[in-house]
Amino acid sequence: MDLKDRGKALEEEFFKREEARKLAALKGKQERGELRTALAAASGMTDEQVLDHLIDAGITAETMTAVSLVPLVAVAWADGSIQEREREAILHSARGKGIEEGSPAYDMLAAWLQRKPGRDLVAAWESYIEALDAKLTGAQLDILKRQVLDRARDVATAAGGFLGVGKISGQEEKVLERLAAAFDRRGARIADTEK
User: Do residues 127 and 56 make contact, with C-beta atoms less than 8 angstroms apart?
Assistant: First the structure.
């Protein structure tokens, strides 16, 4: 094989690889679009940025129900480990939402209870709440906030304390404040626009 043939073979290999790369990128975009469509149907969200944030956090249409449990998981991990009573409280709440053992949502929840999820999970949940803000009335959002915070507070108090003292740790209280702040952004935005 002479130099010209080698150059042609190299060029063909380059274009073959480049074509494969482009095809893979196109397929990835198509798959992401399909994921986004399914997640939009499951969640009622239409904001592509919020949907992408949820996808990046590993949320799918099948696991969307588990998203409602993110605040409980975040509070349980606040002090660096999950107590057995916290785990039981979260699993009880999951069953109440229809999350059955063996389902994708249950598997995702089990993984979150076994290994502390990254910060991107709570950030994705916050994006979800922010997107819900545009779809719900103030009263509806207040009800949702109360329900989420009450359930998260139940998990925080599940591990107890000593003789009822210190039922909610400082770290858990900070997570509860962060969760509450996700719901309070509407008020801050309304106040900003009225200035």
Answer: no
